[in-house]
Amino acid sequence: MKFFVDTADIADIKELAETGLLDGVTTNPSLIAKSGRDFMEVTKEICGIVDGPVSAEVVALDHETMMKEAETLRKIADNVCIKVPLTIDGLKTCKKLTNDGTMVNVTLCFSANQALLAAKAGATFISPFVGRHDDNGFDGMALIEDIVTIYSNYGFETEVLVASIRNPVHVLQSALIGADVATMPPAVIKGLFKHILTDKGIEGFLADWAKTGQTIPTA
Ligand code: E4P
User: Fold this and answer.
1) Which of 7, 19, 28, 111 has its CA 20 to 30 A from that of 219?
2) Cα 150 to Cα 167: distance, rounded to the nearest angstrom
3) Ligand 1 — pocket residues by CB below 6 A?
4) Rounded distance between C-alpha atoms, residue 17 and residue 29, angstroms
5) What is the pLDDT of residues 70-114, one digit of tens each?
6) Rounded to whole angstroms, how far apart are CA atoms 206 and 201?
7) Distance 75 CA to ligand 1 centre (A)
């Protein structure tokens, strides 16, 4: 499963990229606003840190203007992935861009039928929002299962990118279902490394090691 980070915070992206475990980045207009940075500038900087896809979202609602915005965004770097909303105009834009070989992430997906449409439009990624689904009394993970089943039934190549992840259990469930990508806030990715027994184990081993009075030569 690929790991994307869902942020426009450069310090967090750099820190996670250094682990060698980061496969891409997703942003959205809210995350750009939170960063306080210029959209074009920060997107270019992110594209230079991570080799994988960096999603940058259009803000127009009509197909024609979406295409113009996408034209500007795709010039930023080769690894820009144009993010479009799951609307008729968004999917028209998706179809046109992917026909031209541009990566497209279709965002704000809340039903399996929407995901089916996005796959038919040739989306590179579909982003079902599990956290927001759960928040509204639906079962976010059931949605992921349905999409994975439908894509496998028809051999669609669109990757299922689980978005709006809130906790490590969402990540675990996504992996068990076989989703292709999880995009997570930095804190959730960092939380995946942690286990109380790992910390306790290190503490115990180091206490015993100190008793030996030995060191491992490092030069
Ligand atoms: C995905 O691409 C979105 O940016 C994101 O996952 C939204 O998550 P939220 O529901 O926490 O805002």
Assistant:
1) 19
2) 25
3) 6, 26, 28, 107, 127, 129, 131-132, 163-164, 183
4) 22
5) 999 999 999 999 999 999 999 999 999 999 999 999 999 999 999
6) 9
7) 24
Distance of CA 143 to the CA centre of its chain: 17
Compute the distance between CA of residue 80 and CA of residue 52 in angstroms, rounded to an integer.
Answer: 9
Which domains, from first to last, does the chain contain?
2-194 (3.20.20.70)
* Nearest Cα to Cα of residue 26 among 140, 158, 210, 186: 186
In sequence order, what E strands does the chain have? Answer: 2-6, 24-26, 54-57, 80-85, 104-109, 125-128, 159-162, 181-184
What does the DSSP 8-state code read for residue 87?
A: S
Whole-angstrom Cα Rg for the chain: 20
Is residue 200 part of the annotated active site? The answer reads no
Nearest protein CA to atom 11 of ligand 1, as residue:
164
**ipTM above 0.95 for this complex:** yes
β-partners of residue 183 are 4
